[in-house]
Amino acid sequence: MALTKDGQVFVWGENSHGQLGLRKDHPGSPSAQHVQSLSGVPLAQISAGGDHSFVLSLSGVVFGWGKNSAGQLGLGDTTDRHIPTVVNSLNGKKTVSISCGGEHTATLSKGGTVFTFGSGGSGQLGHKSFRDEHHPRVVAELWGSEVSQVTCGRHHTLVSVASSKLIYSFGCGTQGQLGNGEIINKSVPYPVDLSTECNDEYTIEKLIAGENHSFVLSFKEPGNESKPIPSRGILTLDDRMIGRWLSGSEPWKIIKKDINKVFSSASSLNGSFLKTSCDQHYQTSVDHCGLDFDLVKTSFAKISKNESLISEIVKVVQQTLLPSLNPNPVGEESLRVYLLLPELIRRLKKQQRTELTEALASKILQLDPDSLKVLEKYWSRLPDGWLKGLVKLFKKASAYLIGRIAADTMNLDIQTRLPKFVQILQMVYQVCCSANRSITKSDFIINEINDLLDVLQTINDDMLNNRVMLHLTGQIQALIDQQNFSDAVLKNLISLPCIFNLEAKCSYMKNRAWKGCFPLTLRRTALLEDSFSQLRMVPQQQLQEFCLSVFYTEDMKRTDVNKRDFFHNVFEELCAPESLMFMYNDNQTMSWFPAQLSVEKEKYFLFGILCALAFNNNSVVHLPFPLALFKKLLNVKPSLKDLIEFDSVLGKSLQYILNYSEEVEEMEMIYTIVWQGIEVELDPAEPGKKVTNSNREDFVDKYVDHILNKSVEEVFEEFKRGFFKACDRCILEMFEPEELRGVLVGNEEYDWDILKQNTTYEGSFYAEHPTIISFWEVFDELTSNEKKAFLLFLTGFEKVPILGMSAVKMRVRPLFIFTQDHLPEALTCHALLELPVYQNKETLKTKLIEAINHKRGFWEE
């Protein structure tokens, strides 16, 4: 075995038991072969045994492979390994040295603890027995001796204790290799009889154990001062090296050589900036990366001030380091480079920053799932400044490319590059959400996406308005191809919604291109019956990708009867108590699914389709359900807060149990509850289980889970199946639960002043027109309920859209063919009010109130 200064391990020789660590079927090699699986691991030491091999990382992680017939790999079994495998039982033991014997292994921890494992047939493990050990075991006889060195021979082991200048040996001694004056095996450590010439003036430097012999190398030093131990392991970046670079005391040629060695090697970087205070780097695990973040920050800050240094580093990172990163790294230490590079890259100029960020994003996305999961865990534990810096890095690159796409939608190369940046942002966003970090959703939003949506909408409009001209000029196919590609890119981004603000999400919903229309032809007197019978037959593709058109048999002469009228009436009927489909809270303000069915189950499937169609067609509907419904659609677990929203008395009672400061046992509660007339055991394994202080959280969790999940599981799954038959899951998952409810249900922030401010006038009408002045005077005199009725009359919605009243762009124009008996009319899809020019304000008020009370005018152009 050989270890290079840049951290590469090379092996050669036989591979009968996988001792080369290459692959199972590798025949062996007479020339050096690179052990690629260890790429990126910052190694401190290597050791080759009889037919097994070990390496040790700078953070004390031990890897072994090869023959394991006696348990010499310390993995708890006797199965050979053909690739480097972490000895998990030594994690956290602060291992500083390893040594392989013929069929046994020894390790030394900081502080002097010795572990041995493998073959013990000659007593070489030192455990006062001749048994094999399959797990690392402390050599108890050496406990407290502060051992400073350990080395293994073929069947014997040597250790030295620096403080006492003693050497101990154990194992096979049949040829005198134990140095204790006897020719027998020893199963416990015995002192070596050193020559009298080796007095106090000499210091033991190194132990060497061969096949059947041993050596001790000592040296004489004036003043009995210990000789410095030569640096071992790989080359790493530290303050001293950076200081040399910045001082100008070394030739640029030497500095470039150092830069190339360190920044071309993931192993070297992964071994740099370790948090050595209190030995914290030895605690490296899936929870702790072992880096000293403050040291990294100050070091990179120094480097970034020197343009020559940073330019050379960028070149090496771009040309050598990034292409060499291993997508299947071994061990957590190999992932430190993915934390270090963003801190370096974010200090670069825009062009360099974008290029390196893109290359880094590609490498992150190529990581195997297990490594990616560990990296996400590291992200979740980054200091706030680092985490925000990571988000800003990928956000800036994303915003830059989005701006370029908006400026040149024909640039297909940029469109293919963008999703990888956004994908990293989405991953970090999900990490922040699950870890409850202080970073907010607004930190991820890229407002430039709104401009891109506007540009793409313009392209769609041009396609519709100029199709004939484009055909004549031969440009149609090129534009169609470009539009299809842009739509594909946008759909990809939609699956990564963290960059979208609510306005952008709603804009996408409103302006997405439909592939056609599918009609429902209904009787006003049988809305549900006709809707259900026809929706059963509509294919999934049409439900998801075609726009809904609604016709009433009573108005077939009209080209398209208002969808909003349809949704308003059908949901009013569905959610009414007479439908028997739902249960209601005590004040009848909110609905939930029943635990026992009163209607056929298929109705919930069809109800799900109708909800999805309302969502697809941007219709605000009457859907009086708690937030739990929208959470469940998005696979977010409902909470006690959601139960309180539905049933405040029950929910607050459960909250009281959680907050109760005395003994809960005094309440004499049990895990048996009654819900919707059904007795339920929340813990079937222990009927009648008592609620105590120690299990009250479990009791409340199970109570909430039963009401919002288990009791309605069958019905909700049917509803969900219908919903996703009609709705593309990716589009739904753009929204947070609160946003989804707002899109479907609207809000109750009735700001009538904004409605008036945003109103525009057409034809002969203008703001100071007498009829308009009268109209607003009448409107101001309406009651609160009458104003809401007017909103329904104008838009088809009882509530305000999620974006607020500013999203309602009312237009008012004269109704030219009219008499004084005509009522005002509304084209709801356009929020267009057609207002007759009445002779006086009183007539206008009478006719307007009559119109909104009779809900007339519900159709669209």
From TrEMBL:
Q: Can you tell which superkingdom this protein's organism belongs to?
A: Eukaryota
According to its record, what are the GO cellular component terms? cytoplasm
Record GO biological process: protein ubiquitination; ubiquitin-dependent protein catabolic process
SMART domains listed in its UniProt record: HECTc
- Mind listing the UniProt keywords for this protein, alphabetically? Repeat, Transferase, Ubl conjugation pathway
Where does the UniProt annotation place the signal sequence? none
Q: Name one GO molecular function term.
A: ubiquitin protein ligase activity
- Active site at C829 (glycyl thioester intermediate)
Write out the ranges of the repeats annotated as RCC: 7-59, 60-111, 112-163, 165-220
Which residues does the UniProt record annotate as the domain HECT? 564-861
Supply the InterPro entries for this chain: HECT_dom (IPR000569), Hect_E3_ubiquitin_ligase (IPR035983), RCC1-like_dom (IPR058923), RCC1/BLIP-II (IPR009091), Reg_chr_condens (IPR000408), Ub-ligase/GTPase-reg (IPR051709)
The answer on whether this UniProt entry bears the keyword Repeat reads yes
List the protein's name. Answer: Probable E3 ubiquitin-protein ligase HERC3 isoform X2
Query: Which organism was this protein described from?
Result: Carassius auratus
What would be the name of the gene that encodes this protein?
Answer: LOC113044015
